[in-house]
Amino acid sequence: MTEADGGPGTGDTGSEIARPNVDLARAVGGAFVILLALAAAGYAIYRERSSFADALRSISAGALVASFAFGLIGVLASYPMWREILEGLEVDMPWGPGFRVFFVSQLGKYLPGSVWPVVMQMEAGKARGASRRTMFAGNIITIFLNSAVGLLIACMLLPFYDAHVLARYWWALLAIPFLLALLHPRAITGLLDWAFTRLHRPALHEHLEAGATVRASCWSVVSWLGMGMQLGVLCAAVGNGAPSRYLLCIGAMALAIPLGVLFIPAPAGAGIRDVILVLVLSAPLGAGPALGVVIVSRVLLIIGDLLLAGVAGAMRRWKNAPAV
Q1: pTM for this prediction
Q2: Residue 50, burial from CB neighbour count under 10 angstroms (0-12, 13-18, 19+)
Q3: On the CB side of 196, how many CA atoms lie within 13 Å of its CA?
Q4: What is the pLDDT of residues 39-53, one digit of tens each?
Q5: Which of 18, 149, 154, 299 is the Cys-Cys partner for 220 at CB 3.0 to 4.6 Å?
Q6: Among 285, 257, 284, 283, which residue's Cα sits nearest to residue 272?
Q7: Largest Cα–Cα separation, the chain
Q8: Residue 187 pLDDT level (bands cut at 50, 70, 90)
Q9: Which has the closest alpha carbon to 98: 137, 133, 144, 138?
Protein backbone atom coordinates (compact mmCIF):
# COMPACT_ATOMS: atom_id res chain seq x y z
CA MET A 1 0.00 0.00 0.00
CA THR A 2 1.45 3.36 -0.97
CA GLU A 3 1.54 6.51 1.10
CA ALA A 4 -1.04 8.05 -1.22
CA ASP A 5 -3.34 5.16 -0.40
CA GLY A 6 -3.15 5.99 3.28
CA GLY A 7 -0.47 3.47 4.22
CA PRO A 8 2.38 4.18 6.56
CA GLY A 9 4.65 6.66 4.92
CA THR A 10 7.01 9.37 5.89
CA GLY A 11 4.24 11.97 6.14
CA ASP A 12 2.25 9.90 8.65
CA THR A 13 5.33 9.12 10.69
CA GLY A 14 6.25 12.78 10.82
CA SER A 15 2.82 13.80 12.08
CA GLU A 16 2.84 11.02 14.66
CA ILE A 17 6.19 12.24 15.97
CA ALA A 18 5.29 15.91 15.76
CA ARG A 19 2.04 15.58 17.70
CA PRO A 20 3.58 14.29 20.97
CA ASN A 21 6.27 16.96 20.68
CA VAL A 22 3.62 19.69 20.39
CA ASP A 23 1.66 18.28 23.31
CA LEU A 24 4.82 18.06 25.42
CA ALA A 25 5.76 21.64 24.57
CA ARG A 26 2.27 22.85 25.57
CA ALA A 27 2.38 20.88 28.82
CA VAL A 28 5.82 22.23 29.73
CA GLY A 29 4.80 25.77 28.77
CA GLY A 30 1.59 25.54 30.78
CA ALA A 31 3.41 24.17 33.83
CA PHE A 32 5.97 26.98 33.59
CA VAL A 33 3.27 29.66 33.46
CA ILE A 34 1.45 28.11 36.44
CA LEU A 35 4.65 27.90 38.51
CA LEU A 36 5.51 31.49 37.60
CA ALA A 37 2.02 32.62 38.60
CA LEU A 38 2.28 30.75 41.92
CA ALA A 39 5.60 32.43 42.62
CA ALA A 40 4.15 35.84 41.77
CA ALA A 41 1.15 35.27 44.05
CA GLY A 42 3.42 34.12 46.88
CA TYR A 43 5.65 37.16 46.42
CA ALA A 44 2.59 39.44 46.56
CA ILE A 45 1.88 38.09 50.07
CA TYR A 46 5.54 38.23 51.14
CA ARG A 47 5.99 41.82 49.95
CA GLU A 48 3.15 43.08 52.18
CA ARG A 49 3.92 40.83 55.14
CA SER A 50 4.65 43.64 57.66
CA SER A 51 1.53 45.70 56.93
CA PHE A 52 -0.50 42.53 56.74
CA ALA A 53 0.71 41.41 60.19
CA ASP A 54 -0.12 44.81 61.74
CA ALA A 55 -3.66 44.78 60.39
CA LEU A 56 -4.12 41.13 61.24
CA ARG A 57 -3.60 41.80 64.96
CA SER A 58 -6.67 44.07 65.07
CA ILE A 59 -9.00 41.60 63.32
CA SER A 60 -10.47 38.61 65.12
CA ALA A 61 -10.15 35.06 63.84
CA GLY A 62 -13.92 34.87 63.36
CA ALA A 63 -13.90 37.99 61.16
CA LEU A 64 -11.05 36.56 59.08
CA VAL A 65 -12.90 33.28 58.55
CA ALA A 66 -16.14 35.08 57.62
CA SER A 67 -14.30 37.43 55.26
CA PHE A 68 -12.47 34.52 53.63
CA ALA A 69 -15.77 32.66 53.16
CA PHE A 70 -17.43 35.65 51.49
CA GLY A 71 -14.37 36.08 49.27
CA LEU A 72 -14.62 32.45 48.17
CA ILE A 73 -18.29 32.98 47.32
CA GLY A 74 -17.39 36.01 45.23
CA VAL A 75 -14.62 34.20 43.36
CA LEU A 76 -16.62 30.98 42.90
CA ALA A 77 -19.57 32.89 41.41
CA SER A 78 -17.32 34.17 38.63
CA TYR A 79 -17.00 30.62 37.28
CA PRO A 80 -20.68 29.97 36.40
CA MET A 81 -20.77 33.49 34.95
CA TRP A 82 -17.92 32.60 32.57
CA ARG A 83 -19.51 29.23 31.79
CA GLU A 84 -22.90 30.80 31.00
CA ILE A 85 -21.24 33.10 28.49
CA LEU A 86 -19.41 30.19 26.85
CA GLU A 87 -22.68 28.25 26.61
CA GLY A 88 -24.28 31.34 25.07
CA LEU A 89 -21.54 31.15 22.43
CA GLU A 90 -22.31 27.42 21.91
CA VAL A 91 -19.13 26.21 23.59
CA ASP A 92 -19.60 22.90 25.41
CA MET A 93 -17.66 23.23 28.67
CA PRO A 94 -18.65 20.60 31.28
CA TRP A 95 -18.64 21.68 34.92
CA GLY A 96 -15.68 19.56 36.04
CA PRO A 97 -13.20 20.30 33.24
CA GLY A 98 -14.37 23.92 33.18
CA PHE A 99 -13.69 24.28 36.91
CA ARG A 100 -10.14 23.02 36.46
CA VAL A 101 -9.48 25.25 33.46
CA PHE A 102 -10.98 28.38 34.97
CA PHE A 103 -9.40 28.40 38.42
CA VAL A 104 -5.95 27.22 37.36
CA SER A 105 -5.89 29.86 34.61
CA GLN A 106 -6.91 32.57 37.10
CA LEU A 107 -3.45 32.39 38.63
CA GLY A 108 -2.23 34.02 35.43
CA LYS A 109 -3.71 37.34 36.54
CA TYR A 110 -0.85 37.71 39.04
CA LEU A 111 1.59 37.99 36.15
CA PRO A 112 2.19 41.42 34.60
CA GLY A 113 -0.44 42.00 31.95
CA SER A 114 -4.08 40.93 32.21
CA VAL A 115 -3.99 38.57 29.22
CA TRP A 116 -2.58 35.39 30.73
CA PRO A 117 -5.89 33.88 31.93
CA VAL A 118 -7.33 34.60 28.48
CA VAL A 119 -4.42 32.87 26.73
CA MET A 120 -4.60 29.82 28.99
CA GLN A 121 -8.37 29.50 28.56
CA MET A 122 -8.07 29.86 24.78
CA GLU A 123 -5.72 26.87 24.68
CA ALA A 124 -7.99 24.85 26.97
CA GLY A 125 -11.02 25.63 24.82
CA LYS A 126 -9.18 24.58 21.68
CA ALA A 127 -8.49 21.21 23.30
CA ARG A 128 -12.29 20.77 23.64
CA GLY A 129 -13.01 21.71 20.03
CA ALA A 130 -13.75 25.42 20.49
CA SER A 131 -11.87 27.86 18.30
CA ARG A 132 -9.43 30.29 19.86
CA ARG A 133 -11.47 33.15 18.45
CA THR A 134 -14.62 31.96 20.21
CA MET A 135 -12.78 31.45 23.50
CA PHE A 136 -11.20 34.87 23.12
CA ALA A 137 -14.62 36.42 22.54
CA GLY A 138 -16.02 34.57 25.57
CA ASN A 139 -13.26 35.88 27.83
CA ILE A 140 -13.52 39.45 26.60
CA ILE A 141 -17.31 39.39 26.96
CA THR A 142 -16.94 38.02 30.49
CA ILE A 143 -14.53 40.81 31.45
CA PHE A 144 -16.65 43.56 29.93
CA LEU A 145 -19.96 42.25 31.23
CA ASN A 146 -18.62 41.74 34.75
CA SER A 147 -17.03 45.20 34.70
CA ALA A 148 -20.24 46.79 33.43
CA VAL A 149 -22.31 45.13 36.17
CA GLY A 150 -19.73 46.14 38.78
CA LEU A 151 -19.58 49.77 37.68
CA LEU A 152 -23.37 49.85 37.54
CA ILE A 153 -23.52 48.66 41.16
CA ALA A 154 -20.87 51.22 42.15
CA CYS A 155 -22.79 54.05 40.48
CA MET A 156 -25.94 53.08 42.36
CA LEU A 157 -24.41 52.46 45.81
CA LEU A 158 -21.52 54.87 46.29
CA PRO A 159 -23.35 58.18 45.69
CA PHE A 160 -26.18 57.20 48.04
CA TYR A 161 -23.93 56.05 50.87
CA ASP A 162 -23.52 59.64 52.01
CA ALA A 163 -25.53 62.73 50.99
CA HIS A 164 -22.29 64.72 50.74
CA VAL A 165 -20.85 62.13 48.37
CA LEU A 166 -24.00 62.33 46.24
CA ALA A 167 -23.67 66.13 46.07
CA ARG A 168 -20.08 65.87 44.85
CA TYR A 169 -20.33 62.83 42.57
CA TRP A 170 -23.87 63.06 41.19
CA TRP A 171 -22.41 62.96 37.70
CA ALA A 172 -21.57 59.26 38.24
CA LEU A 173 -25.30 58.53 37.85
CA LEU A 174 -25.05 59.69 34.23
CA ALA A 175 -23.08 56.51 33.44
CA ILE A 176 -25.98 54.23 34.42
CA PRO A 177 -27.85 54.38 31.05
CA PHE A 178 -24.63 53.63 29.14
CA LEU A 179 -23.74 50.71 31.42
CA LEU A 180 -27.26 49.30 31.07
CA ALA A 181 -26.96 49.57 27.29
CA LEU A 182 -23.62 47.74 27.45
CA LEU A 183 -25.42 44.75 29.00
CA HIS A 184 -27.49 44.23 25.84
CA PRO A 185 -26.54 40.85 24.28
CA ARG A 186 -25.45 42.50 21.02
CA ALA A 187 -23.62 45.46 22.55
CA ILE A 188 -20.29 43.94 23.61
CA THR A 189 -20.03 41.61 20.61
CA GLY A 190 -20.81 44.55 18.33
CA LEU A 191 -18.11 46.66 19.97
CA LEU A 192 -15.62 43.81 19.54
CA ASP A 193 -16.38 43.51 15.83
CA TRP A 194 -16.13 47.30 15.44
CA ALA A 195 -12.75 47.36 17.20
CA PHE A 196 -11.35 44.50 15.13
CA THR A 197 -12.53 46.15 11.92
CA ARG A 198 -10.79 49.40 12.87
CA LEU A 199 -7.62 47.42 13.55
CA HIS A 200 -7.94 45.81 10.10
CA ARG A 201 -8.52 42.39 11.65
CA PRO A 202 -11.30 39.93 10.79
CA ALA A 203 -14.44 40.47 12.88
CA LEU A 204 -15.25 37.77 15.43
CA HIS A 205 -18.93 37.50 14.39
CA GLU A 206 -19.86 35.92 17.74
CA HIS A 207 -23.40 36.46 19.04
CA LEU A 208 -24.37 35.92 22.66
CA GLU A 209 -27.84 34.63 23.51
CA ALA A 210 -30.05 36.93 25.59
CA GLY A 211 -30.75 34.25 28.19
CA ALA A 212 -27.02 33.65 28.69
CA THR A 213 -26.48 37.39 29.18
CA VAL A 214 -29.18 37.57 31.86
CA ARG A 215 -27.90 34.49 33.71
CA ALA A 216 -24.29 35.66 33.52
CA SER A 217 -25.31 39.11 34.81
CA CYS A 218 -27.08 37.51 37.78
CA TRP A 219 -23.96 35.52 38.65
CA SER A 220 -21.95 38.72 38.32
CA VAL A 221 -24.18 40.40 40.91
CA VAL A 222 -23.64 37.44 43.27
CA SER A 223 -19.90 37.76 42.73
CA TRP A 224 -19.85 41.47 43.52
CA LEU A 225 -21.96 40.96 46.63
CA GLY A 226 -19.55 38.30 47.87
CA MET A 227 -16.49 40.46 47.16
CA GLY A 228 -18.05 43.48 48.82
CA MET A 229 -19.09 41.54 51.90
CA GLN A 230 -15.56 40.16 52.13
CA LEU A 231 -14.30 43.72 52.50
CA GLY A 232 -17.26 44.78 54.65
CA VAL A 233 -16.59 42.14 57.33
CA LEU A 234 -13.03 43.41 57.68
CA CYS A 235 -14.20 47.02 57.90
CA ALA A 236 -16.69 46.06 60.59
CA ALA A 237 -13.89 44.37 62.54
CA VAL A 238 -11.79 47.56 62.72
CA GLY A 239 -14.58 50.14 62.85
CA ASN A 240 -18.32 50.67 62.79
CA GLY A 241 -20.27 47.74 61.36
CA ALA A 242 -23.37 49.71 60.38
CA PRO A 243 -25.38 48.22 57.46
CA SER A 244 -24.52 51.24 55.32
CA ARG A 245 -20.84 50.36 55.70
CA TYR A 246 -21.43 47.11 53.85
CA LEU A 247 -23.11 48.98 51.00
CA LEU A 248 -20.05 51.23 50.83
CA CYS A 249 -17.72 48.23 50.65
CA ILE A 250 -19.77 46.52 47.93
CA GLY A 251 -19.74 49.71 45.89
CA ALA A 252 -16.01 50.23 46.54
CA MET A 253 -15.10 46.73 45.34
CA ALA A 254 -17.41 47.07 42.32
CA LEU A 255 -15.59 50.28 41.39
CA ALA A 256 -11.98 49.37 42.19
CA ILE A 257 -11.70 45.91 40.62
CA PRO A 258 -12.99 46.87 37.13
CA LEU A 259 -10.71 49.92 37.06
CA GLY A 260 -7.81 47.70 38.12
CA VAL A 261 -8.63 45.18 35.37
CA LEU A 262 -8.56 47.96 32.78
CA PHE A 263 -5.01 48.86 33.89
CA ILE A 264 -3.45 45.98 31.93
CA PRO A 265 0.25 46.33 32.92
CA ALA A 266 -0.45 45.71 36.63
CA PRO A 267 -0.81 42.08 37.79
CA ALA A 268 -4.34 41.52 39.19
CA GLY A 269 -4.92 45.28 39.17
CA ALA A 270 -2.20 45.74 41.81
CA GLY A 271 -1.78 49.34 42.85
CA ILE A 272 -4.77 50.84 41.06
CA ARG A 273 -7.35 48.73 42.86
CA ASP A 274 -5.70 49.18 46.24
CA VAL A 275 -5.37 52.95 45.86
CA ILE A 276 -9.04 53.31 44.96
CA LEU A 277 -10.14 51.15 47.90
CA VAL A 278 -7.97 53.09 50.35
CA LEU A 279 -9.33 56.42 49.06
CA VAL A 280 -12.94 55.25 49.42
CA LEU A 281 -12.46 53.68 52.87
CA SER A 282 -10.27 56.43 54.36
CA ALA A 283 -13.25 58.68 55.06
CA PRO A 284 -15.11 56.26 57.38
CA LEU A 285 -12.09 54.36 58.75
CA GLY A 286 -9.07 56.64 58.55
CA ALA A 287 -6.07 56.19 56.27
CA GLY A 288 -4.16 53.71 58.47
CA PRO A 289 -6.98 51.24 59.19
CA ALA A 290 -8.18 51.53 55.58
CA LEU A 291 -4.75 50.53 54.29
CA GLY A 292 -4.61 47.59 56.68
CA VAL A 293 -8.07 46.37 55.68
CA VAL A 294 -7.21 46.60 51.98
CA ILE A 295 -3.99 44.62 52.46
CA VAL A 296 -5.70 41.89 54.48
CA SER A 297 -8.50 41.72 51.90
CA ARG A 298 -6.03 41.30 49.05
CA VAL A 299 -4.01 38.61 50.86
CA LEU A 300 -7.18 36.64 51.69
CA LEU A 301 -8.26 36.79 48.04
CA ILE A 302 -4.82 35.61 46.91
CA ILE A 303 -5.02 32.68 49.33
CA GLY A 304 -8.52 31.92 48.01
CA ASP A 305 -7.25 31.87 44.43
CA LEU A 306 -4.41 29.54 45.42
CA LEU A 307 -6.83 27.26 47.30
CA LEU A 308 -9.26 27.00 44.38
CA ALA A 309 -6.40 26.39 41.94
CA GLY A 310 -5.11 23.67 44.25
CA VAL A 311 -8.55 22.06 44.43
CA ALA A 312 -8.79 22.22 40.63
CA GLY A 313 -5.38 20.57 40.29
CA ALA A 314 -6.33 17.88 42.82
CA MET A 315 -9.51 17.17 40.85
CA ARG A 316 -7.41 16.54 37.76
CA ARG A 317 -5.05 14.18 39.58
CA TRP A 318 -7.99 12.33 41.18
CA LYS A 319 -9.65 11.90 37.78
CA ASN A 320 -6.46 10.49 36.26
CA ALA A 321 -5.69 8.23 39.24
CA PRO A 322 -5.80 4.48 38.44
CA ALA A 323 -8.74 2.52 39.81
CA VAL A 324 -8.04 0.18 42.74
Answers
A1: 0.76
A2: exposed
A3: 16
A4: 665 665 566 566 666
A5: 149
A6: 257
A7: 85
A8: confident
A9: 138
Counts of helices then strands in the chain (DSSP H, E): 13, 0
Give residue-wise pLDDT tens across range 87-109: 888 888 888 888 888 888 777 77
Q: Rounded to whole angstroms, how far apart are CA atoms 44 and 48?
A: 7
What confidence tens digit (pLDDT) does each residue in 3-31 have? 444 444 444 444 444 445 544 555 555 55
Spatial distance between the Cα atoms of 274 and 292, rounded to a whole number of angstroms: 11
Domain range summary for the chain, segments of one domain joined by +? 21-316
Q: What is the DSSP letter of 112?
A: S
Spatial contact of 86 and 93, defined as CB atoms under 8 Å apart: yes
Tell me: pLDDT of 236 over 70: yes
Query: For the chain, what is the mean pLDDT?
Result: 77
Give the closest residue to 252 by CA, choosing from 161, 166, 171, 164: 161
The one-letter code for the residue type at 204 is L
Residue 230: phi and psi, rounded to 5, are -60, -45
